[in-house]
Write a structure and sequence with these properties.
435 residues; mainly alpha; globular; disordered N terminus
Length: 435
């Protein structure tokens, strides 16, 4: 017998010549399904972890300290809006098989360029904040100067896109760092014992509502590039068309669900510290409210563990912001669809973000809060285009019979985010002393 047999087995390993066409086809199908599942999970976590980056953590700490349990309403509202936005955007982009910029241009010529410029610029602003977050994290974890920490973190992110299979590496890194973030938040939650009953009451019936806080938290978790991160990842994986609509919808649902759970758990963890009466610094140049909350909860080790979670958040969001922002470059030239040029552009995007961060004198925490608010101003523009396509240009969606109830909810969110964004422009730019 030429092939080795295992003990108790008489089955010979088949040679390549003895493999039937049906077995070969079955193997290819299994491999396709495995890669498809991996891409769906990657898209879910890319969107979810982009939405729970250092900006969101800092925004949550800042507004929870300012507003107390009433900020739970902002978290709840962001989750509801997120469901409506992402279900629409993922489905519309997935059905069309085009990136958001390409789709917008096909629907209304020229609007894709406008959307691309806004998302790319908004992604750049957010990425500067993400790198600032990496710097804050490494400062808390090992005492590095924030700018040196930001430099190191950005170089590590660049390293991922230097690898020839950057997509798969990106998915795995994002999922691994997501596990780190969730584990630490859960530990803190059990230690601080937040007033859950009061938080739930205020989440539904808040004592006060701060419009700038709402716009910032919505923008920081849904706005700008985050809206398109998961959907564009599925495009790269060729998971498109009406035959994949169920998988696309399920992926968007789980992405928002995971994001929402993490958001609310983080809010409760910070609230538990704030409710204890501890004073948290929000005003000084070196203020890092989330770090202070973790330190109060877990002592000196809590401060260092917070550094790890903030570094993880900054790294995942830097990857997501760069990847998604660069996915809009193909609107200007189809050459950016070529993987090598796209990776080079992504590396350049991270490098520019890093240089601007190193030159910027703004306090990192203030920058992180501002980034969310700015992207909240971009959100209604792209969403309006997507909803218009759903209502009036179903020819771009393969004439798929799109659920009218989902479009109506999307239209209502459009109106709300336009009103919210316009009303919040002044206080959002005031975060940087620009108005």
């Amino acid at each position: 017998m030429s092939a080795e047999t295992s003990p108790g087995s008489e089955t010979r390993e088949p040679s390549s010549s003895s493999v039937s066409p049906s077995a070969s086809k079955g193997s290819q199908t299994a491999q396709f399904l495995k890669e498809r599942r991996s891409s769906l999970i990657g898209a879910v976590f890319l969107m979810a972890m982009s939405a729970v980056g250092p900006g969101f953590i800092t925004q949550t700490a800042t507004f929870t300290v300012q507003l107390g349990a009433a900020f739970g309403f902002g978290i709840l509202l962001s989750i509801v809006i997120d469901f409506i936005v992402q279900l629409n955007v993922w489905r519309i982009i997935g059905l069309s098989g085009k990136t958001a910029g390409e789709l917008a241009n096909a629907a209304i010529p020229g609007t894709g360029y406008v959307l691309a410029v806004l998302v790319i610029f908004g992604g750049l602003v957010f990425n500067i904040g993400n790198i600032a977050g990496i710097g804050l994290g490494l400062n808390a974890a090992i005492g590095l100067d924030p700018k040196i920490g930001g430099l190191i973190g950005a170089l590590l992110a660049i390293g991922i896109f230097l690898y020839k299979r950057a997509g798969k590496v990106m998915d795995r890194v994002v999922i691994a760092l997501a596990a780190v973030k969730v584990a630490i938040v859960v530990i803190v939650l059990f230690v601080v014992q937040p007033p859950v009953g009061h938080a739930l009451t205020e989440t539904v019936m808040p004592d006060n509502v701060n419009l700038a806080a709402l716009t910032t938290i919505v923008g920081g978790t849904i706005g700008g590039y985050i809206t398109y991160a998961g959907a564009h990842r599925l495009l790269d994986a060729k998971i498109t068309g009406s035959e994949n609509i169920k998988a696309i919808s399920t992926a968007s649902f789980w992405g928002v669900t995971i994001t929402g759970v993490i958001r609310y758990l983080l809010f409760l963890a910070i609230l538990g510290v704030a409710a204890s009466g501890v004073t948290i610094d929000l005003a000084s140049h070196t203020a890092n409210p989330a770090a202070q909350a973790f330190q109060v909860a877990l002592g000196e080790w809590g401060f260092r563990i917070f550094g790890v979670i903030f570094w993880a958040a900054g790294t995942t969001s830097t990857i997501g912001a760069a990847y998604t922002s660069v996915s809009f470059f193909n609107v200007f030239s189809p050459k950016f669809l070529e993987p090598r040029l796209r990776n080079i552009t992504t590396i350049g995007f991270i490098a520019v973000s890093l240089v601007v961060y190193l030159l910027l004198g703004t306090a990192p925490a203030a920058l992180l809060v501002f980034a969310g608010g700015f992207n909240g101003l971009i959100l209604p523009i792209g969403l309006t285009l997507m909803i218009y396509i759903g209502f009036a240009r179903r020819d771009l969606l393969g004439n798929y019979r799109y659920p009218i109830w989902l479009l109506i909810l999307g239209a209502l969110v459009c109106v709300f985010t336009w009103w919210m964004g316009i009303s919040s422009i002044q206080p959002i730019f005031a975060l940087l002393g620009l108005s």
